[in-house]
Amino acid sequence: MQRLYDFLRRHPTWVDSFWAVVLFGLSGVSVVSQSRVPGHHMPMGGGWAVSAVLCVVVALRRRYPEPMLLLALVTGLAQLVLDIETTAADFAMLVITYTVAAVGARWASRLALFVSLTAAALAQIRWPDHESSALGQLAIGVFQTVPFALAWVLGDSMRTRRAYFAQLEERAARLEKEREAQAKVAVAAERARIARELHDVVAHNVSVMVVQADGAAYVLDAAPDQAKKALETISSTGRQALAEMRRLLGVLRTGEHQESGEYVPQPDVEQIDDLIEQCRSSGLPVDFKVEGTPRPLPSGVELTAYRIVQEALTNTRKHGGPNAGASVRLVYFDDGLGLLVEDDGKGAPHELYEEGGADGQGHGLIGMRERVGMVGGTLDAGPRPGGGFRISVLLPLKPAH
């Protein structure tokens, strides 16, 4: 039974053709019976022809709604002119009115409404009931007009309902695409965040390890105790780097920060002291001062501040030269956190800070700008007037919109 139903849904013209055949049979009975009624002079040939045409209208109404409406209109006018009284086939007028109102063009729907409101009146005028009074004939015309009006209203309601469901489907499809786009953007943003984190972790800790390894190799024979201390610094720095990388990999696997076991919390402002000490132990003199009243900050601001200081000191170690020194100022404002990192070295090459880097270089400054932008802050980076390099950052304490 379900197969038959699905077949009929896929072939609506076959269903309409079946009902057209049934209607043609009823129309034939109507034509024969009216031709035998005394006082009726309806031509048999004309009756059969009109019935056949109107049944074709029923059969093809869903495939060609507008042409079938025009065909039904022409057939109705021919009935009026040739004095071919209404038969059962005229039921096709109701059917085509509903169909055009439901699926036809707007002009065809309006035409069907006009015809449906005038057809019954024209038929009553053309073939009046002589046994009824004028008031009775008016009542009959109104009564015959109601089915046409209801057919049009029902069809127009179906059109509105289909349009509503189509709009819902379109909206659902659009929302699904938006969700997919947002998911892709979120994935890209997360990948960029992880890439920045890995860059900061690897660049800083590896540079410290390289400096300590070079120092250990230089004093290995002359000062074994200093070489041992350098190797211990390399070991602790490597462990710290591995711990942070495990934390990042844990975020990738679980989507959350795990603070137990081998994973460590995100760095914050309080750990800047440890970062400064690590840089000092690697041979980079750093002057660190905190101004204002320290207080808890949003985690995103704390992580950004830590990474900015980390990357700035890494750049000083890379580009400042062997005798460079640095200073870090952390300022707590009422509505923000200020960072000022300066060094007295030879400064970074121009292409590393102009426009955020060029030709694959300057990724550290690009990452800084992205981090600061994510929390709605501002960053200014460039050479100092007296030599060296300067990075100034202002991080607002309210989330960026």
From TrEMBL:
Catalyzed chemical reaction(s): ATP + protein L-histidine = ADP + protein N-phospho-L-histidine
InterPro entries found in the cross-reference section: DUF7134, HATPase_C_sf, HATPase_dom, His_kinase_dom, Sensor_HK_TwoCompSys, Sig_transdc_His_kin_sub3_dim/P
Gene3D superfamilies from the UniProt entry: 1.20.5.1930, Histidine kinase-like ATPase, C-terminal domain (3.30.565.10)
Alphabetic keyword roster: ATP-binding, Coiled coil, Kinase, Membrane, Nucleotide-binding, Phosphoprotein, Transferase, Transmembrane, Transmembrane helix, Two-component regulatory system
Source organism superkingdom: Bacteria
Residue spans crossing the bilayer: 12-32, 44-60, 67-82, 134-154
GO molecular function, one term: phosphorelay sensor kinase activity
Histidine kinase domain span: 201-399
EC number of the protein: 2.7.13.3
Stored SUPFAM superfamilies: ATPase domain of HSP90 chaperone/DNA topoisomerase II/histidine kinase
Listed GO CC annotations: membrane
Coiled coil: 165-192
PANTHER family: NITRATE/NITRITE SENSOR PROTEIN NARX-RELATED, NITRATE_NITRITE SENSOR PROTEIN NARQ
Listed name of the protein: histidine kinase
Source organism (scientific name): Streptomyces diastatochromogenes
Source organism phylogeny: Bacteria, Bacillati, Actinomycetota, Actinomycetes, Kitasatosporales
